[in-house]
Amino acid sequence: MRPRLHREHHLVGRVGWLRAAVLGANDGIVSTASLLVGVGAANPSRDAMIIAGVAGLVAGAMSMAAGEYVSVSSQADAEAADLARERRELRDEPDRELAELAGIYEGRGLDPDLAMTVAKQLSSRDRLGAHMRDELGISETMSARPVQAALTSAVTFAVGAALPLLTVVVAPAAIATYATAVVALVSLAILGAFGASMGGAAVMRATVRVTFWGAVAMAVTAAIGKFFGAVV
């Protein structure tokens, strides 16, 4: 009797959008909060901080979208070029490609005869798919999606940037800079924990890591703002 199959949900399927989402939100919080803290240290004016924050949010979201689209498009172009070359090789040298695929399976521990049998059976169903997965390392889960990455990064950047910006708007002017730093650090801690839990990683390590580097970024920009504010 054939054993019953059960559906498994693997976390690696989230890698594509999760990376872009966490990167966008983290960048939005850190860059905008650092900008606001730096401006606040130089000129603790609510209006100046709001103008800087809005400009940083819009520019950052557009930059993230463009950067993600260009970088992931480059990956997609490379994958397409590899697949086109593989199609030509499968058409022109099928025996050599079959032997190459069998060699891959043999290198993973199968004996030569079984490796060739597996290569033939997989190739009979989908030759290109077999080479795409096992020779090129390209899969549907990990394939490049430029538009998805661009939109995800832009939206999550804007959401992340809105948190410190809203803090400046609602906090008392006298403590706006300090409140922005606190809200940013708390938001980064929550983001680090969320990203780690979604990806199946160690929550505490990710939380400490993202919060630490956010604190460093804000401390540096605050020092620079304080210095130039004093000079001016």
What can you see in these coordinates?
By secondary structure, this protein is mainly alpha-helical. The protein has one domain (13-231). It has 7 helices and no strands. The protein has helices at residues 15-42, 46-92, 94-107, 112-134, 146-170, 176-199, 203-231. Helix 1 runs antiparallel to helix 2 and helix 3 (94-107) packs across helix 4. The protein is elongated. The protein starts with 14 loop residues before the first helix and ends with a helix. 33% of the residues are buried. The model is unreliable at 8-14 (pLDDT under 50).
Number of helices: 7
DSSP summary, beta strand count:
0
Distance between the termini: 82 Å
Which stretches are poorly predicted, pLDDT < 50 over at least 5 residues?
A: 8-14
What's the number of domains?
1
Specify Rg, calculated over alpha carbons.
25 Å
Q: Helices and strands: which structural class?
A: mainly alpha
Question: What's the overall average pLDDT, rounded?
Answer: 83
What is the overall silhouette? elongated
Strand content: under 5%
